[in-house]
Amino acid sequence: xxxxxxxxxxxxxxxxxxxxxxxxxxxxxxxxxxxxxxxxxxxxxxxxxxxxxxxxxxxxxxxxxxxxxxxxxxxxxxxxxxxxxxxxxxxxxxxxxxxxxxxxxxxxxxxxxxxxxxxxxxxxxxxxxxxxxxxxxxxxxxxxxxxxxxxxxxxxxxxxxxxxxxxxxxxxxxxxxxxxxxxxxxxxxxxxxxxxxxxxxxxxxxxx
Length: 208
Known about the structure:
Elements: H1 2-6, E1 10-14, H2 17-23, E2 41-51, E3 54-57, H3 85-88, H4 91-104, E4 112-120, E5 138-147, E6 149-151, E7 154-157, E8 166-168, E9 174-179, E10 184-187, E11 190-192, E12 200-207
Antiparallel strand pairs: 1-9, 2-3, 2-4, 4-12, 5-9, 5-12, 6-11, 7-8, 7-10
């Protein structure tokens, strides 16, 4: 595990509850997902840039990952609805993006991709890709809310065949930044605490 002791491969922070509360209502408006993971993930996706302190949508594009990275939906062009304008205007969303920019040190003109997820607990893996990388320099998971849920912990690996070297619950407000070029990640399966009620995890994933 010497690699993890010598490099900045994982950073953790917490976003204030006030900022989390500002973005939480938007998850109730997530549309259905028509792709292979649609049974257990609702999603929006946008590319944004920060301009004069505001989050500006960039031209809509399909999201696609090479099948060498994503063995579950590789080489599939997926088009999702953008994040809502009302969400991008909140101080909460601006704070989340600014935390990401501060921790990564990316340039002001760099595009940031944002996925807004509601992951449903239906006895399936939280990350059907398994132990994987996403093909970016930086990947951030920001927990927003959870309901009637056990599991869904973040797992980090030194390499794809290793045992996990880090495991942590994705708590509301937790901001976990992963060096996607150096380590791998996954998540534990999610199950309902009460089988008669809906269970889910709401989060943002930011990449650059």
